[in-house]
Amino acid sequence: MFNFSFDRRTLYIVIVILVLISVVSLLATPGELFLTLLGLPGVLIAITFHEFAHGITAYWLGDNTAKNEGRLSLNPFAHLDPIGTLMLVFVGIGWGKPVHVNPSNYTRKISMEKGEAIVSAAGPLMNIILAFVFGIIYYVIEKYAGVTFLSSTVGVIIMAMIQSTIVTNVGLGVFNLIPLPPLDGSKIIMPFLPYKAKQWFMNNEQIFYIVFIVIWITGIAGRIISPAIVWLANRIMSICSFIL
User: Fold this and answer.
1) What pLDDT is attached to residue 2?
2) With b meaning 16 or more CB within 10 Å and e meaning fewer, what string describes 93-102?
3) Would you state the pLDDT for residue 195?
């Protein structure tokens, strides 16, 4: 997902400040803090499966790097980046520990560039698939669990956690499709760009990092993608409801 190479120290200072501000705000509103805690399982699931999807796809294409580093695992501790996880929990935008891949190991049936695009797309795609899976689970429970369970404290908490998991997966998937380094979208679009555009994109990568940092810290990124997240989450829930 993320692969920071631009001024990490400055980034981490900003990140810590954002997390502290969010934590102080949540402590002042116990209800919001409770909802944040309910979202923890969704965060763990979203990050774990996202990074696993990168690793397993690279492995299917012939690269053993992720496997050799123990990343072909659904153990959350193999994929969680402490700061990235805190950001996703408290700020709503975060990342997992990057899965290392070696495109030169990919099958020669496709170009390295296309291989990178496929591996990069696997993470967001996995998140969207998970959103559908949990959407189905939500409506199965709603249909068959009964009013008594749904109106109970346990039932309300479980349904809220499932809803949070759906939104978190959609959010993580959509966010990573933004075509700016270091997000997955920057590699996904590469095979579709003309040669000169690719060269310009790669030569100005550091500028794109700065642009990303600015729109992220200022909240512009959130305002841009929030409508897309809400729209897609609603469409997924509508489809799952229709299926059942």
Assistant:
1) 46
2) bbbbbbbebe
3) 86
d(CA 206, CA 235): 36
Question: How many angstroms separate the CA atoms of 14 and 4, rounded?
Answer: 14
How many whole angstroms from its chain centre is CA 186? 14
pLDDT, residue 7, reads 52
Give the pLDDT confidence score for residue 11 in this predicted structure. 60
Q: Assess contact for 95 and 84: CB atoms under 8 A.
A: yes
**Locus of tokens 């989450």:** 233
| Cβ–Cβ < 8 Å for 97, 79 | yes
DSSP states of 88-127 as a string?
Answer: HHHTS---BPPPP--GGGS-TTS-HHHHHHHHHHHHHHHH
Q: What is the mean pLDDT of each run of 10 residues along the chain (244 residues)?
A: 51 64 62 73 92 96 93 89 72 75 89 93 97 97 91 93 94 90 89 87 80 75 87 96 88
pLDDT value at position 23? 62
Dihedral of the alpha carbons of 60, 64, 66, 70, in degrees to the nearest 10: 110
In whole angstroms, how far apart are CA 172 and each of 104, 184, 237? Answer: 28, 11, 17
Task: Let me know if 71 is exposed, middle or buried by CB neighbors in 10 A (0-12, 13-18, 19+).
Answer: buried
**DSSP single-letter state for residue 218:** T
With tokens 């429970």, the residue in question is 141
In Å, how far from its chain's centre is CA 49? 9
Return the sign of the alpha-carbon dihedral for residues 145, 146, 148, 151.
positive
220-243 and 153-175 helices, crossing angle to 10°: 120
